[in-house]
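Technical note accompanying the year-one report. For the benefit of new consortium partners, we illustrate the data format agreed upon in the data management plan: each record pairs a sequence with a C-alpha cell string. No post-processing was applied to the example shown here.
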Amino acid sequence: MVGLRKLEKGFLTEGSEFKLIVEGLPAKVALELASTGFKVDLAGAVGDDALGKSLITFLKNNGVNIDNIVVKRGLRTTVVVMINDILKIYFRKPYAITADTEFSLNDISLSRLSNINLLYTSAYALMENPLGHTVFYIVKHLWKNNVKIVLHINFHTYEDRFLSLRELRGILKYSSNIILSYQELDRLLKTSNVKTAAQTIFRKFPAVENVAITTQGRMYVHTKGVGEKVFNIREADESKFAALFIKNIIT
C-alpha cells in the first residue's frame, strides 16, 4: 500500500501537491526492523503500475527482501490519499479491486517461509478476501511449525468497518503474540483496564503468550505468568510500537 500525503495545510484544491510514502503497517514495520539490522521479508501483492514499481524499489533499497511480493497484472496498487491526519481516502476493497486484497495462496510457496522465526500481520488484512483467507492459512500453517505469530489489532477509528472478537477468534487461536491499541479495549473486551484486558485474552486464547497494549507514547507488555513491562516511546506510531515489541520477543 502506498500513500499520497498532501503537503500543504488547508483544503484540497486543484494543483495541491502530494508526497509519495509507504503505508500499511506490515510494510512500515518491515522498514523499521530492516533499518536496525534485522533480516526482513515482506509478502504481498502490488499492481503493475508506477506506484507498485516505486514501492518495490523503495523496499528493496531499504533492506527489505521483496522475493515474496508479486506483481498482479491488470490490477492497481492500493492507494490511500491523506488530506490531513483525520481525512483519509482509501482506493481498496470494498470500494475498488486492488492488488493487495487479491493476494492468494497461488501467489506464495509456503516452503519459502519455512526458515522464518516470526510472522507479523495486521488484523486489517483479514477484512477482505482472498487476502484474508491467505493470511489465515499461512498463520495456521506456520503456528503448527512453531513459528512465533504476532497479530496487530488496530482498526482505523475513522472507518465504520471493524472485525469483532468473534470474527477474530479463528486467527487468535493461532497467535502467540497480540498487539492491541488502547482504543480497541472497550470495543473488543468491554474494559478500559489494561491488566484486565491482558488477563481476559490469556484466559480466552491459550496460545497467546504476550499481549502488548499501546497508548499515546507508551506500550504495556504483559507476559503470561511473568507480569508487566512498560515501554516509553517518543513517537506514538503503531509501526514503531510493533517493531519494539518484536525486538523484545526475539531478543
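Partners are asked to follow this layout when depositing records. The chain has seven helices and 14 strands.
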